[in-house]
Design brief:
The chain is built from five helices and no strands. With about 100 residues, the protein is mostly helical.
């Protein structure tokens, strides 16, 4: 299968999707959302993610689907950062 050079990217992708037998719900925007979600989960810098996403992080956040595992890691990391100073003080005071 060779794509038509004059066809719009959506049309080329639709033809390839049909040829591969993939569901019609899969579109280029879905691939973009997935790509940006993976960038976030793999820890790419926010500025880089913003360049391939939307100008505003809040808009990009609306259509990313980060996993529960990632959310849990993020929350755990934030809690450890918040609690670490208190834990160090307790450790030095408890001797």
């Amino acid at each position: 299968m060779r794509p038509d050079r004059d066809a719009a990217p959506d049309e080329v992708f639709a033809t390839a999707r049909e040829h591969a037998g993939l569901p019609v719900e899969l579109d280029l925007h879905c691939l973009r959302r997935t790509y940006i979600t993976h960038l976030i989960e793999f820890g790419y810098p926010e500025r880089f993610v913003q360049q391939v996403g939307h100008a505003y992080a809040s808009k990009t956040a609306l259509y990313t689907w980060v996993s529960d595992e990632y959310r849990n890691r993020l929350i755990e990391s934030a809690l450890w950062r918040r609690l670490a100073p208190a834990t160090k003080k307790e450790a030095t005071l408890s001797w």
